[in-house]
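Hello Y.,

Per our agreement to keep a running log of every chain we model this quarter, I'm adding this entry. I've kept the format consistent with earlier entries: sequence first, then predicted structure.
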Amino acid sequence: MADLIAVLAAQTAAFWVAAIVGVTILGLAKGGFAGLGVLGVPVMALGMSPVLAAAILLPILLVQDVFSVRAFGAQRSGPILMRMLPGSCLGIFGGWALANFVSVAAVEAAVGLIALGFGLQRIRAERRGVAARVGPPWQGVAMGAVAGFTSQIAHAGGPPFQMHVLPMKLPRDIFLGTSSLFFAVINWLKVPAYAALGTFTPANMALAAALLPAALLSTWAGTVLVRRVDGPRFYAIMHGLMIMVGGKLAWDGFSGLLA
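Predicted structure for the entry above:
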């Protein structure tokens, strides 16, 4: 116990500020503002290494998933999950197998550019009044694989999921329920790979536990706030977040590639 307290006391003020802001953003994402979650690691990396940020976040994500699934999971699209989850398993395995060969910065840059273009395209489509569109089954499998891969490599599975699901214009709560279940499964599938990498150390778990109250409080706040937003406004927010997240990922990715 004394050693764990020493770990907490050894962290700098910059660490705690970045960590609390990062898990708060993540909590709002888990509470319903999907898409914000990919900003968790970049924000936390302002006060610590990205590797440490990712290691601390996964245990927090697993607990937050329990609350988000409980809040929204009853309303979900079974067909979407049935298409996307098998692909996500392949993507997670591919991300683990290729972790030493694929640059995180390259993944961030590619996902960011695609998400940025998709977000802009969706805003133009909404202004033209484009009808809801359901992609073919193979597209769900493919985008599930991409989401699993980018989640394993860079905790950036949100944009690929949204690229497949947002054009369907699902009712708000079904979108949230489907998203919460999809990422809850993905996060548990990532546990063996993270365990094999040795990230679940006592020190990392102690830091995660210290941040858990802020993470759960922000998750609860997200569930309260998102229910006050009607369907059209919710999707407008999602498209705006897609553009913001895409821009941030692209910036981080190209900054890493040029460093």
